[in-house]
Specification:
The complex is a heterotrimer. Chain A is an all-alpha fold. Chain A has 13 helices and no strands. In chain B, a hairpin with a 2-residue loop joins β4 and β5. The radius of gyration of chain B is 22 Å and the shape is globular. Classes of the chains: A mainly alpha, B alpha/beta, C mainly alpha. At the A-C interface, α1, α3, α4, α5 and α7 of A face α1, α4, α5, α6 and α8 of C.
Chain lengths: 279, 425, 309
């Protein structure tokens, strides 16, 4: 190969090599976990790294659903219900709040943004106890109402801000002409704003799903009836009951992670794609 | 701490709901004959509770017993219990370890059942071992009825003993015997320079150390005062701590973190294991090797610590009369026979404990008799309002010395300093 | 964008005003759930917590005013000081590493090319793993005897630390865990990098600037707002991040090496029934993060002023 070509290729190759190595590093823990979860149950812990057990066994994935006092399938379904409801509620409330902020007078925009950022500063731990008192008083304890209450305000000020930034980037004339045509705010939101912010909707949807699917502390505090428990509680119960059975626990961890990873892989093409980043 | 934090989550509700003040939740109108029973246990034990409930229903047609089973995680149990108590809607019958009950007694969460016990036709105080019954007394009143009288014993792997050519632990074996046996059993079986088989496994906790203190003629409490500052107590603690810190017959911190002692015993890489009856059900499913139990080793005297759970009636129970009937039945000969079938309990009812229901020759361990024999030397952990906090701090200090990060002397002094002021409640 | 309507000359003033008020009402209507929700779910609880930090409350009797006594515990009880030290250690170690790591990754993976989408996805992937599963994963990976990391180190002939079983290395485990989740920062910086117009690069090459000076004088300043945003966000986040992992993995062990402020607050509140103390710890946590943000901001101001000079 002519030396010039090598000089031009070398940095690209180096970059690719580095990227490959990094990707490997970031993925290897997950690979280890999947491998560990495929280990046959009943064996003592491995003495050497197993990239793939021989023979691999799916028994652990069946076993995690077979604890009579930990109905994991039920808990997973509960998590799905809560997370899905939260996604819908959040998409609605965060987007219309973001729109209202974007259409507000400039002074108010600034104030609302500061307000949102200040909200983000409050440590979550400060909220548990007062919220428990509040929900008890509202008879929301031991119901999904306690878990979904934040979804009524957009789940996180960050999501509201994301919509706000998205809508602010849209040309003002768009909204003005629609308003001139007599469109009310809700119509603006439904017909104009939402369709123009699909990327943000998808991003917020995924982040919301992740937030509620992973939520551990709120279900722990606010739910009493085992029938209502969600997946994170189930997994910590499994950990309590069979602390050393790593293949089993890791199978549960993989089960819990699979939906979020799957969702992510489906949509990441649009955000992390090969060309421009669509944010 | 390697063991305690989930319990904190439990106290969550105790606190949280108490915080909510008394937001009165509407209580359901009392049904014809209903009684609820909150239990804690693994699936096998839960099933036995449900069997007791079913038998009770059969004897009392028209009565429904609702067994509330939560996962076998203790912390969650206490969380829910606390929440229910604070909300004023507890179950009618509540399962409680005697060591955890102090706080609830002091808060008036449970009601006394002395009168009911005295008046009952089905059971009487004489039916039970006094060591268990007395552990559930508070200020002269009987607060709960114990369902078991378990205690700390030594589980041992017979195959490992055979392989090492050792005699099984005798009933009167001593601390010296324990040490030499454990040393002989601590081996590097595959020659890679790393010990992979340990002689002994035990938690580094106050409730494990107390029997050793007692065996050495030491005391924790003398009347109402702390009596730990004695050479006997120090000697006992020193011996216990040296098992790991000096002789390394117990897994070190790294080994215990990687795989705890119970798992090691189940995997056949641990010779001796200090635990109560609670692991018998799990161990019964072990097929790879033969195992049995022996008493704890003794020194100046033999002693062991009580492990006991009881059934109590919350002060705010909706159906206290039926609750008592259920408790009486559960602790009658018939009820305790049903509960003993899982092997989880050492029945507190004398008649059942000394019968084949508990001493079934076909059920492991072959020497279940050990639990009966040690009853005369059983002593309870102190029943105090602040026991949990004291135990937690003590556990931390003991662990520190156990894993070689401090001396036994320092640990003892730290425990004395912490516990001393907290004994007056 | 203002809410006032563009009036056409023929529209009567009254209708326009009414229309404007309607618009305002509609806006307020849409904003109400958010603001009200935030007040009820965040602001009021936050204020309550602040008030609680000045009181003694155990849930059994009414709260009583205690002034600064809870805060004085930070000078008396070693546990509080340990927690502050641990949290600061984590933040001061994790945040720079995370920001620099995100920057490095963004620079490396900014160019479109074959497979870059896959690399980016791989880097972001650990971020979507739920907290509970994430804690379990690392609890296993860092298992001192059987975990794959130490097994790998053993094969390579490297020392195998005790990780979570040793006070010195336990905190590093948490830092390490946080480094795997720099996907969000990475994406933010990627977006930032893409706002740097291509012609800047061309102009620079024409002027003979090498890649390093290009980075220093062009990329970095243009990226500065994003870097600042990321750092501030991470500074605040890092104090709260450690809660779930420390709760699930170590409970503060060994010997409080992994006792961070949120865990201590949780224990004080729910284990020791000292709600006032728990709240005070959270206030201190908030104050620490706020102080760090201010300090960072001051440093940045000085840099930018020095650069301008």
């Amino acid at each position: 190969m002519p030396p010039n070509a090598i000089r031009k290729l070398a940095p690209a190759l180096a970059r690719h090599a580095a990227a490959l190595a990094l990707a490997f590093v970031f993925l290897v823990p997950l690979a280890w976990i999947v491998a560990a979860s495929l280990r046959q149950p009943g064996l003592p812990p491995p003495r050497t790294i197993q990239w793939l057990p021989n023979p691999p066994s799916w028994a652990n994935y069946l076993a995690i659903f077979n604890f009579p006092s930990v109905p994991l399938a039920r808990y997973a379904l509960n998590s799905l219900v809560v997370a899905s409801a939260a996604v819908v509620l959040t998409a609605v409330t965060a987007s219309w709040t973001g729109l209202a902020m974007a259409l507000a007078p400039a002074r108010w925009q600034a104030r609302l943004v500061m307000f949102s950022i200040a909200l983000l500063l409050v440590p979550a731990g400060a909220l548990w106890l007062p919220r428990f008192v509040l929900f008890t008083w509202l008879h929301l304890i031991d119901s999904y109402g306690a878990l979904l209450a934040p979804a009524l305000m957009g789940s996180s000020p960050l999501f509201v801000l994301l919509f706000y930034w998205t809508y602010r980037r849209l040309p003002a004339e768009l909204f003005e002409s629609a308003q001139l045509d007599g469109a009310g705010l809700l119509t603006l939101w439904w017909r104009l704003a939402l369709p123009l912010s699909t990327a943000t909707l998808v991003a917020v949807g995924i982040l919301t799903f992740l937030l509620y699917w992973s939520d551990f502390v709120n279900p722990l505090l606010f739910l009493k009836t085992p029938d209502l428990y969600t997946l994170p509680i189930g997994i910590s119960q499994l950990k309590a009951m069979d602390r050393n059975n790593w293949p089993l626990l890791l199978a549960a961890a993989v089960f819990m992670t699979a939906p979020t990873v799957a969702l992510f892989l489906v949509v990441q093409r649009f955000f992390l794609g090969e060309n421009k980043l669509h944010l | 701490m390697l063991a305690h934090t989930p319990r904190r989550l439990a106290t969550l509700a105790l606190a949280l709901v108490l915080v909510a003040g008394c937001a009165p939740t509407p209580t359901a109108a009392p049904a014809a004959a209903e009684v609820s029973w909150m239990v804690l246990g693994d699936p096998a034990e839960t099933k036995s509770f449900q069997a007791v409930a079913a038998a009770f229903e059969a004897l009392h047609p028209g009565t429904t017993v609702t067994v509330i089973t939560l996962a076998s995680e203790e912390d969650e149990y206490f969380t829910r219990l606390g929440a229910d108590l604070a909300a004023g809607t507890p179950a009618d019958v509540v399962y409680m370890d005697y060591r955890d009950a102090g706080r609830y007694y002091a808060n008036g969460a449970f009601q006394s059942i002395s009168a009911q016990l005295a008046a009952s036709d089905l059971i009487s105080a004489d039916d039970f071992y006094p060591q268990a019954l007395n552990a559930f007394q508070w200020e002269g009143e009987q607060m709960c009825i114990p369902i078991n009288i378990s205690s700390l014993v030594t589980y041992y792997n017979k195959d490992l003993f055979d392989a090492a050519g050792l005699a099984y632990p005798a009933d009167d074996w001593t601390w010296e015997d324990l040490l030499t046996t454990a040393q002989a059993l601590t081996q590097d079986t595959d020659g890679d320079g790393v010990v992979d088989q340990f002689g002994l496994g035990t938690a580094a906790q106050l409730i494990r150390v107390l029997p050793f203190i007692w065996q050495n003629d030491g005391e924790f409490l003398d009347g109402d005062q702390l009596a730990l500052d004695t050479p006997q107590a120090l000697e006992a603690l020193q011996f216990f701590v040296d098992l790991q810190a000096k002789h390394h017959v117990v897994p070190g911190r790294v080994e215990e973190t990687a795989q705890d002692s119970q798992a090691r015993f189940e995997n056949g890489t641990l010779g001796l294991f200090f635990q109560s009856r609670r692991v018998t059900t799990a161990f019964r499913s072990l097929t790879a090797f033969d195992w049995d139990v022996a008493p704890l080793p003794g020194q100046a005297q033999s002693a062991t610590i009580l492990h006991s759970d009881g059934l109590c009636i919350p002060a705010k129970a909706a159906h206290p009369d039926l609750a008592w009937d259920l408790i009486a039945f559960a602790n009658s000969v018939q009820g305790q026979q049903i509960m003993s079938t899982t092997g989880r309990t050492v029945p507190s009812n004398r008649g059942v404990a000394e019968s084949e229901y508990f001493l079934d020759p076909n059920a492991k361990p072959a020497h279940s008799q050990v639990w009966i024999d040690v009853i005369s030397g059983i002593r309870p952990a102190p029943v105090l309002r602040e026991w949990e906090e004291i135990a937690e701090h003590a556990d931390e200090e003991i662990e520190r010395a156990f894993y070689g990060d401090g001396s036994a002397e320092e640990a003892l002094q730290a425990i004395i300093q912490y516990a001393g002021p907290r004994l007056d409640e | 964008m203002s809410a006032s309507s563009p009036r056409t000359p023929t529209q009567p003033a009254v209708t326009a005003q009414r229309w404007q008020r309607q618009q305002q009402a509609a806006l307020i209507g849409l904003l109400l759930p958010y603001v009200l929700g935030a007040l009820v779910l965040v602001v009021i609880p936050g204020v309550l917590a602040l008030g609680l930090s000045f009181s003694y409350y155990d849930g059994l009797s009414a709260p009583s005013w205690w002034g600064l006594r809870n805060y004085r515990m930070f000078f008396i009880d070693p546990l509080e000081r340990i927690a502050v030290a641990n949290s600061l250690y984590f933040t001061l170690l994790a945040v720079p590493l995370r920001v620099l790591g995100a920057l490095g990754l963004a620079l490396l993976l900014r160019r479109p090319g074959r497979g870059v989408g896959l690399y980016r996805a791989a880097v972001y992937l650990p971020t979507v793993i739920p907290d509970v599963a994430y804690a379990l994963i690392w609890l296993w990976v860092f298992n001192p005897l059987f975990g794959p990391l130490n097994l790998l180190l053993g094969v390579l002939g490297l020392p195998q630390p005790a990780w979570l079983a040793d006070a010195a290395t336990a905190k590093l485990v948490f830092v390490f865990m946080s480094l795997f989740q720099i996907g969000e920062g990475f994406v933010v910086l990627l977006a930032g990098l893409q706002t740097i117009p291509a012609d800047y690069a061309d102009a620079a090459t024409v002027d003979g600037a090498g890649p390093v000076s290009f980075f220093r004088y062009i990329t970095l300043p243009l990226l500065a707002p994003w870097l600042i945003l990321l750092t501030v966000r991470d500074l605040i986040w890092s104090f709260q991040y450690t809660f779930t992992p420390s709760l699930l993995m170590t409970q503060g062990d060994p010997y409080h090496a992994t006792l961070f402020l949120p865990l201590l607050s949780f224990e004080e509140t729910f284990a020791n029934l000292r709600f006032g103390m728990g709240a005070a710890i959270l206030v201190v946590m908030f104050a620490c993060s706020f102080a760090l943000v201010l300090a960072f901001y001051a440093v940045v101001r000085r840099w930018t002023r020095a650069d301008a000079a």
